[in-house]
Amino acid sequence: MLNTLRQLADSGIIRPLDYHLARLLSDQSQNPVLLLAAALTSRELGNGHTCLNLKKADLFQLLGAARYADAIKACPPLEQWQEHLKGEPAIGDGKQSTPLVLDKSRLYLMRYWQYENVIAERFNSSKHTPLNSSLSHEQVRQILERLFPEQSEQPSSQIDWQKVAATVAASHSLSVISGGPGTGKTTTVTRLLALLVELALAENPDRSPVIHLAAPTGKAAVRLTESIGSARWKLNCSKEVRYAINDQATTLHRLLGVIPGQAEFRHNGNNPLHLDVLVVDEASMIDASLMARLLEALPKESRLILLGDRDQLASVEAGSVLGDICKSIDQGYSHDQIKELKALTGYELMEFLSGNGPSIRDSLCLLRKSYRFDERSGIGRLAKAVNSGNRQEVQSVCQEQLNDLRLIHTGDIQSQLMRAAVEGYRPYLEAIQKDSSAELVIEAFDQFQILCTLRDGKWGVTGLNENIRTALAKAKLIPDEGVWYHGRPVLITRNDPALELYNGDIGITFKRDDCRYRVAFPKPDGSVRFLLPSRLPEHETVFAMTVHKSQGSEFDQVAMVLPESPSLVLTRELLYTGITRAKTTLSLFSRPDILVSAVDRPIERITGLADRLT
Fold first, then answer.
1. Which residues does 545 contact at the CB level (< 8 Å), separation at least 6?
2. What rounded mean pLDDT belongs to the chain?
3. What Cα–Cα distance (Å) separates residue 256 from each residue in 274, 298, 426, 529, 604?
């Protein structure tokens, strides 16, 4: 079996890492089922899954043409593997330290089994917290009505899901507020924070809660800082409450305290974070490992509020934590929760009553109304159609003449895309030529972005960045030679905790008066810091970026480029995430059939977390 696995690694069907795990275990056992199962479990991890599901896995699908290898054909069917793995010293049930854990029909690497259990145990132990022992329901209701005034254009009978979400989150130690673009997640959480501060001050006037804000990336942290900072000035509350709301977000890595050269963080179960309330935005980007470590570092009596869009792409690393948690979000609320929501918000929510379901559903809320996209918005309609898998509606929307959405698939596509790139990037390049401040240049750059789904090829990041640079140089906006130049946009592709730069961070290059280059990166507080190019971790030019890298960002205008032929990379979630990066206009460079093929291909991350949540 080892020889076969080595051949699979040499042909790229499995990774060298997968093979070496099997080779390591071969010192203890020559069981071919164990060696193949270990390699496949490791391979699944590399594909974003936390485990190998022995009941649902298809060996032929997993290994493709390698299914014809004699050693693999000699193995028993997958449904019999559990019996063949019993008694192997490398496999345990989690009670002892073993490389692998077999949990029912799921085979894990030990640490990922532990991550899932840490997450599940913390959420399952999260408790309902009375809003305030010194205030009546009527008094709390009055605070909610002041913080969430009825909109004049909104019928009085219509449910304000932002108010419901704040009430749900205020009454649970761990909660999730999910919603699509423009549903007001940060507006909701700002008002929620004001509610929590008022309730805390009513209990103890001398101490307001310690509030921290965080996000997985620097870009997302900047956006959260801007959103909370803007929203808190619109609150109908006292100055004392307003100033108690922290509006400075940071990255999760910085919050937890990275130790250079080590996998662990400074804050953990033995050294918890010092806070009362933690708000984490863009939670869909958090993988199982990071979420487990965050929960371990969270004080037992603190409150965690996760914000995110459950329908976006899952994390790059293994796991689908927000998606798994939100699988209960459509299962309705318990009778007690419905009763409390009625008392505090006045809304009759009996249609959302469900007698059965996991208790975690009472700590979840879905924001259902978009304040950014109305019924006439092509972007909003397309996002909704893609998300629901409605291929007919996708085709219908793309055929209409809409102000905010264009489907470009005829004529010289390459020339049209290059013209869009030149006009889209012209404002920031002209701003930098006029010696505008770094803050203004970065703001101008953020107005437009080209997104693609592939890394390589004519329509991938590599090919597009090269062609766009040529087009910009031809337009006299940048020089046509040199790796570094005034205005070069740079994307960080590897974390560097020491520099507080993380995968996905974007900076703009400036040629200073001393003729040396510096790269300007925005800080969460709105200021800018400059770094020498020689100090940067791995990076690349970013006139075009992948949809994955764009998560946590939004742009006024987006040009999204799909490949010329169907690709397994192009999925429903990828398409939805790319579409929802656009705030005002979206140009889709795609053949209609390629677009529809993505709608028919949803992602399924294989994990056991959803089944562990009770």
1. 449, 450, 451, 452, 461, 491
2. 91
3. 11, 10, 39, 22, 30
The closest alpha carbon to 379, from 351, 407, 408, belongs to 407
Model pLDDT, residue 11: 85
* Nearest 10 degrees: Cα torsion 594, 597, 599, 605: -120
- How far out from the chain centre does Cα 228 lie? 19
Residue found by looking up tokens 């329509």 in the block:
459
Category of 261 on φ-ψ map: left (φ > 0), alpha (ψ -120 to 50) or beta? left
Backbone angles phi, psi at 14, to 5 degrees: -120, 165
Q: Transcribe 208-239 into DSSP letters.
A: PPPEEEEESSHHHHHHHHHHHHHHGGG-SS-H
Which pLDDT does position 439 carry in this prediction? 93
What does the H/E/C string look like for 349-404?
Answer: CHHHECCCCCHHHHHEEEECCCCCCCCCCHHHHHHHHHHHCCHHHHHHHHHCCCCC
* Rounded-to-integer distance, Cα 607 and Cα 319, Å: 7
Question: What pLDDT sits at residue 236?
Answer: 92
Q: Which residue has the tokens 């620097």?
A: 218
> pLDDT digit string (tens) for 423-433?
999 999 999 99
Alpha-carbon dihedral angle through residues 394, 397, 400, 405, given to the nearest 10 degrees? -110
Query: Is residue 158 helix, strand or coil?
Result: coil
Look at residue 132 in the predicted model and tell me its pLDDT: 66
Residue 567's SS3 state is coil
Can you list the positions of beta strands (E) in 104-210? 106-109, 174-179
Q: Can you tell me the distance from the alpha carbon of 531 to that of 512, in angstroms, rounded to the nearest whole number?
A: 12
Residues of the chain above pLDDT 90, percent: 66
CA 436, CA 442: separation in Å to the nearest integer?
10
Q: Which two tokens stand for residue 521?
A: 């990166």
End-to-end Cα distance, the chain: 40
- Give the closest residue to 164 by CA, choosing from 357, 348, 301, 360: 348
Are 25 and 34 within 8 A, CB to CB? Answer: yes
Nearest to 184 by CA among 212, 155, 148: 148
**Cross-strand pairs, 174:** 304
Give the burial class of 606: count Cβ atoms within 10 A of its Cβ; 0-12 exposed, 13-18 middle, 19 or more buried. Answer: middle
The 10s digit of each residue's pLDDT in 431-487 is: 999 989 999 999 999 999 999 998 888 899 999 999 999 999 999 999 988 899 999
DSSP single-letter state for residue 311: T
Dist CA 428 CA 226 (whole Å)? 20
Find, among 304, 301, 208, 300, the residue nearest to 252 by Cα.
304
Neighbours of 339 (CB within 10 A): 13
Is the pLDDT at 610 greater than 90? The verdict is: yes
How far is it, in rounded angstroms, from Cα 23 to Cα 28? 10
Q: What is the DSSP string of 47-96?
A: TT-SSEETTT--HHHHHGGGGG-HHHHTSPPGGGHHHHHTT-TTEE-SSS
In the DSSP assignment, the letter for residue 258 is B
Contacts of 518 (CB under 8 A, 6+ apart): 509, 510, 512, 530, 531, 532, 533
Residue 150 pLDDT level (bands cut at 50, 70, 90): confident
